[in-house]
Design brief:
CATH architecture: Up-down Bundle
Largest sheet: none
Number of helices: 17
Strand content: under 5%
Radius of gyration: 21 Å
Helix content: over 70%
CATH topology: Growth Hormone, Chain: A
Shape: globular
Number of strands: 0
Distance between the termini: 23 Å
Number of domains: 1
CATH superfamily: MFS general substrate transporter like domains
Length: 435
């Protein structure tokens, strides 16, 4: 196997730029889907099940796409880039169509298509970083990826506010349907997703198969390959499993209910077709954008902090700060004070989208990077599936459909994940891969 060269700042920039588009699409989805469901008449306890598309498509699509991209090679388009482009085209078309849904079932169906399409691009993009970088640059690569995740989310989050307050779009629709500013936001997101992924495809060239030949396996069937990888997961995967479980359970509860908690708890709006609700929805998107600003600023400092205290302790600190931030929303009734809580969420998110991947990447055979990254995603989607299937019952019977309490429970999950991080044996803190 040939030695991978060190890449320059701009080479790492180009290869991770596509994540800006991916996160633009995710950001629009996370900031607006619960509100879209409320526009179409969904009750609070129905929202978790309507979000089932996200974890289910991740569970099914990511390992399969990861394995397929491991076994793909085209002399022009390479190994991962064909999937970048296919996913971007499908996701962009769905983003255009999503806010034109006229019924809950239509919106839910398009969410399934959108999530599957985003996963086609996203999983190979995560593996792409590990493909292209030597071990000593992995933290830099995933930190740059975290930067673009934050930037894409910021752009997506501020867009509804800009359309309402700068461009003067109406806050409500005359017929009670999804307002025009939401539709334009998704249209801009579609072009941004496709453009960012196309930039990475055109500016980056992949290493040929001989760079991974040492780890090549005997040719076996796809399902046999999945089974083999599943039964030979590295120790770091097993150690991080409970951390990832409670981290993503907490995040999913936040994504379910943060937007509608802001509209109700902070802005006092309960009618989706009211001006106050539009203000709350726009500010909830601002909150997503603000914590994403914190994410990409904090991401710049993370390699130096990880070098001093280690990835494990950095991840513990970030998760603890994020959990405390979500719990603090109980005491917040001012929209600007809410940004303090979002600062903590942004610090947590910066670590969540980078440190676990930096911890496991050094343990994965380069030839199997795609499939193992897909399998690692199981520790994300399984808690999301549990939340989607079961949290409606929790909302009805235990929380009395209180959206704020659901967000606070998410904060408790992040605190538990932080404590479980302390049980990691090493946390991937090999000094040779800190930089």
């Amino acid at each position: 196997m040939k030695q991978k060269p060190q890449l320059s700042f701009w080479q790492i920039w180009n290869m991770t730029f596509g994540f800006l588009g991916i996160q633009f699409g995710w950001g629009l989805q996370m900031g607006n889907m619960s509100a879209i469901y409320e526009f179409l008449g969904a009750a609070p306890d129905e929202i978790p099940l309507l979000w089932l598309a996200a974890p289910m498509t991740g569970l099914i699509v990511q390992p399969i796409i990861g394995m397929l991209s491991d076994r793909t090679w085209h002399p022009t388009f390479g190994r991962r880039r064909p999937y970048f482009l296919i996913g971007a085209i499908l996701a962009s078309l769905t983003l255009v169509a999503m806010p034109h849904a006229s019924a809950i079932w239509m919106a839910a169906g398009m969410l399934w298509i959108l999530d599957a399409s985003i996963n086609i691009s996203m999983e190979p993009t995560r593996a792409f970083v590990a493909d292209m970088l030597p071990k000593e640059q992995l933290s830099k690569g995933y930190t740059m990826q975290s930067f673009f995740i934050g930037l894409g989310a910021v752009l997506a989050a501020f867009l509804p506010w800009l359309l309402l307050n700068v461009f003067g779009f109406d806050k409500t629709s005359t017929d009670g349907s999804i307002p025009g500013y939401v539709k334009i936001s998704f249209l801009v997101g579609a072009f941004s997703f496709f453009g960012a992924m196309l930039y990475t495809v055109l500016t980056t060239r992949e290493y040929p198969p001989e760079y991974f030949a040492e780890d090549a396996e005997e040719k076996i069937g796809y399902f046999a390959g999945l089974s083999h990888a599943f039964h030979n997961m590295p120790r770091s995967f097993v150690q991080l499993a409970p951390v990832q479980f409670f981290t993503w359970l907490g995040l999913f509860l936040m994504w379910f209910y943060l937007t509608v908690t802001v509209t109700e708890h902070v802005f006092g709006a309960t009618d989706p077709n009211s001006s106050k609700y539009a203000d709350g929805l726009a500010w909830a998107n601002i909150c997503f954008g603000f914590y994403s600003v914190v994410t990409f600023i904090f991401a710049l400092a993370m390699p130096a902090i990880a070098h001093k205290i280690g990835k494990k302790m950095l991840h513990f600190f970030c998760l603890a700060v994020g959990g405390a931030a979500l719990l603090s929303i109980y005491f917040i009734h001012d929209q600007y004070v809410l940004l303090l809580a979002m600062t903590g969420v942004g610090i947590a998110w910066a670590s969540i989208v980078s440190m676990p991947y930096a911890m496991i990447a050094q343990d994965i055979p380069p030839r199997q990077m795609g499939i193992f990254m897909g399998l690692f995603n199981m520790f994300i989607v399984i808690p999301e599936i549990i939340a989607a299937l079961g949290f409606g019952w929790v909302m009805r019977t235990l929380l009395d459909n209180n959206k704020l309490h659901a967000v606070m429970l998410g904060g408790g999950c992040l605190l538990l994940a932080a404590l479980l991080t302390l049980l990691l044996v090493s946390g991937g803190d090999d000094p040779d891969v800190q930089a």
